[in-house]
Amino acid sequence: MFGWFKKQEADPIVFPDNRAAFSYACTHLDNRLLVEAVIPALVEEEGKRGSEGEHYFLLRLAGRDEGRELWACTLKEATAFPEAGELVGYRVVRYDPDMPEGLNLLGFIALGLAPVYMPGKGWQISKNYTPQNIRQTVRW
54 is in which domain, residue-wise? Predict the structure, then answer.
């Protein structure tokens, strides 16, 4: 009637740089490793190029105690690639906590994230590193 029951939207949190946004993600957000989850990560350095055309990058995945380091890649059909210092979204494909560290997490760099967080909605997307011909998961 007068907007009494309308949910108030929170103001976006704008960070001065990607490192500050990553620090916020580590300390204030629950970055659970779930299949198909997109976890914020900071690109630390560029690695080699794979035999099928994928590009490898050293990432720091957001989590408690400043996260964890891992090597991740873009998909081979990707046409754009992140740079060192960029905030990206790492899409989890498989997670098995029973496997040894380093072998328990499988995923790829899916998105470029802007240092803007919308509470209740997530990070603002700046780039898409996922090729258009990748089939989306269908849920019934």
Answer: 13-128
